[in-house]
Structures are given as C-alpha cells and as structure tokens.
Automatic annotation (TrEMBL), chains A, B:
Protein name per Swiss-Prot or TrEMBL: MarR family transcriptional regulator
Keyword Endoplasmic reticulum: no
Domain HTH marR-type positions: 21-154
InterPro entries per record: HTH_MarR-typ, WH-like_DNA-bd_sf, WH_DNA-bd_sf
UniProt keyword terms in alphabetical order: DNA-binding, Transcription, Transcription regulation
PROSITE patterns for the chain: HTH_MARR_2
SUPFAM superfamilies, A to Z: Winged helix' DNA-binding domain (SSF46785)
PANTHER family named among the record's database cross-references: TRANSCRIPTIONAL REGULATOR, MARR, TRANSCRIPTIONAL REPRESSOR OF EMRAB OPERON
Keyword Transcription annotated: yes
Domain of life: Bacteria
One Pfam family linked to the record: MarR
Amino acid sequence: MPNEPNNKTEPSSEQDGTFLHTCMYFTTNRLSRAITRLADEAFAMTGLAPAYGYLVRLVIANPGITQKELSEKLYITPSTLTRFIDKLEGKQLVERQVQGKTVLVYPTVKGTAMKETLHEASKKLKAAYEAKLGKELADALTRMQESASELLEQ
Amino acid sequence: MPNEPNNKTEPSSEQDGTFLHTCMYFTTNRLSRAITRLADEAFAMTGLAPAYGYLVRLVIANPGITQKELSEKLYITPSTLTRFIDKLEGKQLVERQVQGKTVLVYPTVKGTAMKETLHEASKKLKAAYEAKLGKELADALTRMQESASELLEQ
DNA sequence: GTATTTTGTTTGTACATACAAAACAATAAC
DNA sequence: GTTATTGTTTTGTATGTACAAACAAAATAC
C-alpha cells in the first residue's frame, strides 16, 4: 500500500499542518489578518479603521447614497452597515436623512474635510503592501481575489 | 488640465467605488467573507466552525502539542487560541495538561473520533470552492496568498 | 542563590461581522 | 380603504479576533 506513510521520521501533512497551506479558507483568512494589520497602521493617521475610511470616501463621492447601495458596494450586510453609520454619525462625519423607508447618508462638513487625508492613507496602504510584495504580485493577487469573490458570491 | 474629470455623465472611480476593487485590503476581506460562508456550510455537518475543525485536526495529529505551537501553525494570537481551547475543552473534544508554564493539548476519545468527519468536511470545502472557481484558479490563488502572507508577516 | 528578564498563558475589553427576527414604510390587491 | 406583501433598516444576540495587561514559570545574570 504505497499510500501509507511508513517513514516515522518525516512528518505527515497532518502533523506539520501542511494541509492548512493548501486550503484557500485558511490562506485567505491568514492573509486577511496580515493585511488588516498593515491597513490599521496606514489609517492610524485618520483616526478611523480602514473600513470606515472607505465608507466615508464613498459617502463623500455620493452624497445622499442609500444604506442599501453602500452595503452592496462594500459587500457587507445591512446590519453591519447600520452599526458603521451609527459610529460615523457619533463622530459627526456623516448624517442620516430618513426618506420613507430608505435612509440617505450625507457627509458632514467635518466628514468632507477628511477627503484628502483618507486618500493619502489609502495611498500609504498601497505603498506599504507593494513595498513588501512588489507591484506585480500585489496586482495579480488583487485581480484574482476580485474574480474569485465574484464567482463565490454566486 | 487633463486630470480633471469634466464629463459628468460617466462616474468617477470615487463614485462607483472602483478604487475599492484595486485595493488588496478590500478584496482580501471581501473574499474572506465569501469563503467563510462556504466553509461554514461545509463544516456544518461537524458541529464545529471551520477554524475549530482545523485546530482539532492538528491536535489529533500531534497529541501533547503546546498552545504556542498551535498558535504559530494557525497564525492566530495566543489569546485567541486560549479561547478556542476553552471552547473545545467545554465540548470535551480536547483537554489541557499544564506542564510548568506551558500547556499541552491532547485530544479526547470523543475528539479523536471526529478525525474522519473533519477530513471529509475539509474535502467537501475544497470541492465546493473548486467547483465555483476551477482547480487552476483555486490553486494559483491559494499559493499566491501563501507567498503574500509570508512576505507581509515579516 | 536571589534578582531580573524572558516566555507562555489567561483575562479584560473592544470591535467587526453575521444571522434571524422585529420594526417600519411603501406599495399592491382586493 | 383595509389588508397583504415587499423592501429597508434596526435590534438582539453570538462569534472570531486582537491588544494590552496581568500572571506564572523558567532562564539568565550577577
């Protein structure tokens, strides 16, 4: 039976955890933790977590955008978005305007004032990971992840 | 000034959120949410979340492994691992044996009995994402994520 | 051989995130 | 016009995850 591991001196895939490294669920989440660390650093100057930063950018560029649209663009659930907007409203960076059954989100003056800073933090983040990965790998990986997300979300 | 967008009819990258799709932080987390959904489904039959399933597999293959080693193999922080082991101990799938300042983790009989089921859930997960992505994309992506993680963790 | 530093684990706290159910508003059916 | 249906948001609850601080044991320095 050639499938049986019979050499006790070399560790099996189970022992050394090799099986983890060929599992996309595992590698994706590992990478997610790593890049989130980097992103948190890059966005520290804004006083916002990266996810909030991108949300504010979307609101600045689309004043009056609905929560539904925001959750679609960000690929997060509506309930998560509600909490995000709650927090940003608390920081007076955006404000809600109820319009029937939908909610329109507008940037405040204070929110709009962050536009440049947010842009810079994003550039800083990109520079940081490109410095470590190289532009080629970073771009290829980003594009592949985009395609894979589309396919998995079906 | 050719950089100024002067055509109001076509939306800018800021408006449509294109800038998100070229940011690795964003695409990684989007993919993470998508594949986590898939993994939760595949592991439903085990009664465990995928992360716990992999942890139990490591413990079964390495009885007496320390928490430190586990957290290194899984790339999660020690504090997170403590909570994971707490929960698995509660379910009587693993048990701790304190050895000085380190903690050795052993599978219980009940834990060992899950070996096959866990293996099958992992295979089911892989089959699920390969069905949607194709084996080529899945493998290429997994390998790239692995390399990128290594580079970012420096 | 005590004092200091290092290492491994746990606890407190906080946050992103999801799902399910509820609340609410608008529209359609009759 | 009331009732049923549909669409959007919010709330309750749960989970994974981290960081910082606390703690305990071991190792090292003197």
